[in-house]
Design goal:
about 575 residues; alpha/beta; ABC transporter transmembrane region fold; Rossmann fold; six-stranded mixed β-sheet; four-stranded antiparallel β-sheet; 12 strands; about 65% helix; about 10% strand
Length: about 575
């Protein structure tokens, strides 16, 4: 319980940090809310005065009533303008706060370590940044619109009632805490339910995102029924959480209305007795009853706001958890001047502490050498690439480029020193030219074409409707896997950094095109340090060094002829393919 209270307290504190940036508009909102409420509360006094000038049939002071009606009209007009300006301020506060939160969330996404992304589903992260922030915005907007106005109305009404008759005001104040107690009790118990609702919604978004992205695989293996069953389970859980949250939160309004009706009845009875005895006038009783009604109305609104705020706080807690995640380790400001020399010294690494992967890994690569990494699936080939690019940091040991520990330079300078083509392609929504020029946005069209020709992508690009200006969808749209891979290779051909990483770069390309690209790669690798991960040994026979990995360790090392002569694990792999 104490932990939950601390979480809510921290969430509120962080929320106010965002709101504080827009203090001017908060002050303006409160100011215009006060003007609106003051004029709204002044109207019942004018109505009471109008009632008092209606003395008896035939003795009505129409001139005074007309004067009062004019004042009431002016008050209503000013109130409308004040409420309009207040709403503008509230909208500005809310959507600027939402803008700032989403900006911080996206910025955090850029600096989170890769292990966080690997450990959380993409849909769940998207749900936090999109759906939870939207829910938070709804609650925050309602809070600013009604919460401030409600508080000012309550305080103002009490002051006006005290000027009319302190005795009746005491009756109102005595009964009021019952309404507050009911609202607070229900709000306290609905927070956990709204938090469960947000969590269930995140699970649902994650599943939908996963299934849309892998629809072909689901259909190919006939898993539609199983996926539907899983979705139904999550959807049912969301239904239960939502119904519980909404049911309990919906009790707030009727409960507070019941208490408020008691207040109104008590004021009416007590006021009538006083009026009969001449303690107050009929007009004053009319004003008091109007105030009693206006006094209780904010409690109904605030109770509704509290319900929304519970939902908003639950959603805010999730997004703030994301924003407060520990970022990747800070980097040193030094820039890397890569010369192609790479050295790994006593490197130990594991994704999960209890499952060791790479142990005591040592490697020295001279500038311009081609290093091929082979071995069975799961032996750590791609992990070596992740460490070289510093997507993950080593647990112990060091990786040096140009005799500099890569932890002592900026990640950007390190990564721009490598050209990388992976087995998994990634293309963004945009033109073919934009996708090729991703690493070099200032490249001319001629330079892009030269890179595309080197990657043997030019011919299929020219067959597209608009050539290099053809717009493709996210992840390549209707392009084949091989065509996507050619564009990714062209992207590296355009940049030509001092070092290259090719992780199954030709896995999706036909054999004939692969032979051409291997020639292009050979030309590109001249004078550049290259790391090639491959399962097909035919693609790495010309490598200067072949590292044979098994269970995270280098078990053999040498060139193709040397490893075949040893008759070891590499020979077994080679014979299994040829």
């Amino acid at each position: 319980m104490a932990k939950k209270l601390n979480v809510r307290k921290d969430t509120m504190k962080q929320m106010f940090q965002y709101v504080k940036k827009h203090s001017l508009f908060v002050i303006l909102s409160i100011l215009f809310a006060a003007v609106s409420v003051a004029l709204t509360l002044y109207v019942p006094i004018l109505i009471g005065d109008a009632v008092d000038v209606i003395i008896a049939p035939g003795q009505v002071d129409f001139e005074e009533i007309f004067r009062i009606l004019v004042i009431i009209g002016v008050c209503i007009g000013i109130t409308g303008i004040a409420q309009w300006i207040m709403n503008i301020c509230n909208n500005r506060i809310t959507y600027h706060v939402v803008h700032d939160i989403r900006k911080d969330a996206f910025n955090k996404l850029q600096i989170l370590p890769l292990k966080y992304i690997d450990g959380h589903s993409q849909g769940e992260i998207v749900s936090r940044v999109i759906a939870d922030v939207d829910q938070f915005a709804d609650g925050l907007l309602m809070g600013f619109t009604q919460f401030f106005t409600g508080i000012v109305t309550i305080v103002g009404t009490l002051l006006f009632m005290l000027t009319i008759h302190p005795g009746i005001t005491v009756v109102v104040i005595v009964i009021t805490p019952v309404s507050l107690f009911v609202a607070a009790f229900i709000a306290k118990n609905t927070y956990d339910m709204f938090q469960a609702q947000s969590k269930a919604r995140g699970e649902q978004t994650a599943l939908i995102d996963e299934m849309i992205g892998n629809k072909k695989v689901v259909q190919a293996f006939g898993r539609e029924a199983a996926v539907l069953e899983r979705f139904d389970g999550i959807n049912e859980n969301l239904r239960k959480c939502s119904l519980k949250a909404i049911f309990f939160s919906s009790l707030t309004n009727p409960c507070t209305r019941f208490v408020n009706s008691l207040v109104y009845a008590a004021v009416g009875i007590y006021g009538a007795v006083l009026a009969i005895g001449g303690g107050i006038s009929i007009g004053q009783l009319t004003s008091f009853l109007s105030y009693a009604n206006q006094y209780t109305k904010p409690f109904n609104e605030i109770s509704g706001v509290i319900t929304e705020l519970q939902n908003a706080l639950a959603c805010a807690a999730r997004i703030f958890d994301f924003i407060n995640e520990t970022p990747q380790t800070e980097e040193k400001p030094a820039e890397l001047a890569a010369d192609g020399h790479v050295e790994l010294n006593n490197v130990d690494f594991s994704y999960v502490p209890e499952k060791p992967l790479i142990q005591n890994f040592n490697l020295k690569v001279k500038p311009g050498q081609r290093v091929a990494i082979v071995g069975p699936t799961g032996c750590g080939k791609t992990t070596v690439i992740n460490l070289l690019m510093r997507f993950y940091d080593v647990n112990s040991g060091s990786i040096e480029v140009a005799d500099t520990d890569i932890r002592d330079v900026t990640r950007k300078s390190l990564r721009t020193s490598f050209g990388m083509v992976l087995q998994d392609t990634w293309l963004r929504a945009g033109t073919i030219r934009d996708n090729i020029a991703m690493g070099n946005p200032d490249a001319t069209l001629d330079e892009v074409i030269v890179a595309a020709k080197a990657a043997h992508a030019h011919s299929f690009i020219k067959r597209l409707p608009n050539g290099y200006d053809t717009v493709i969808g996210e992840d390549g749209g209707n392009l084949s896997q091989g065509q996507k891979q050619l564009l990714c290779i062209a992207r590296v051909m355009l940049c030509l950094p001092p070092m290259l990483i090719l992780d199954e770069a030709t896995s999706s390309i036909d054999t004939r095109t692969e032979i051409r690209i291997q020639k292009a790669f050979a030309a590109m690798m001249q004078g550049r340090t290259s790391f090639v991960v491959a399962h097909r040994l035919s693609t790495i026979m010309e490598a200067d060094i072949i590292l044979v990995m098994k269970d995270g360790n280098i078990i053999e090392q040498g060139n193709h002829e040397e490893l075949l002569a040893k008759g070891g694990f590499y020979t077994t792999l080679y014979n299994s393919q040829f």
